[in-house]
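Course assignment 3, question 2. Fill in each field.
Student: A.L.
Task: Predict the tertiary structure for the chain below.
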Amino acid sequence: QVQLVESGGDAVQPGGSLRLSCAGSGYGNRRFSMGWFRQAPGKKREGIALIEHDGETTYADSVKGRFTISKDNAQKILYLQMNDLRPEDTAMYYCAADYRAYRDYRSVPDFDHRGQGTQVTVTN
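Answer field:
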């Protein structure tokens, strides 16, 4: 069974940086699409970044140029480097995985497997 555990969320000031991690297990030898989505209170889930098994990445316009998704296949860890954080980035962040290829970050909230989330708060 696939399990995903996020870490790295924190409270930071605007302009600050954070790196989120997502440790995965239970993949076996299957190749997965992996991504990040977020949800702020009272708002819909928002897919923000996707990395396919071949390394192709896609991003939401709201984070493009500020956030970078990457993965360590050997350690089975997914990362999200977040720079120039803004108050509107405040949300619970989730990593997700699916064995199908989607090629579209907007699909991430509907992936089959997801973690419990890690909170990111950007405030003065």
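Instructor remarks: The chain has a mean pLDDT of 94. The two ends are 40 Å apart (CA to CA).
Grade: pending
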